[in-house]
Specification:
43% of the residues lie in helices and 0% in strands. The protein is an all-alpha fold. The chain has one domain.
Length: 70
């Protein structure tokens, strides 16, 4: 996204590291929002850049938008 604005680098600060091994301690697992295996699936989808199918239309729209700006 930032690359589409012409930036080659950005400064960033890492304030938190999320470890897969600690899934049972993640706040939304502890509070019952997600089961541990659900949270792990979300984690994997995010880091594998593999979103669920219901996002398909939005992703296609964004890709078309970016390609039309080139």
């Amino acid at each position: 996204m930032v690359a589409s604005l012409g930036y080659k680098t950005i400064k960033s600060l890492v304030t938190k590291v999320v470890r897969f091994e600690d899934a049972k301690y993640w706040p939304n697992v502890v509070n019952g929002t997600f089961k541990k295996n659900e949270a792990e699936q979300i984690f994997n989808r995010y880091f594998e850049a593999n979103p669920p199918n219901f996002n398909k239309d939005w992703i296609l729209y964004c890709k078309e938008l970016i390609s039309s700006e080139s």
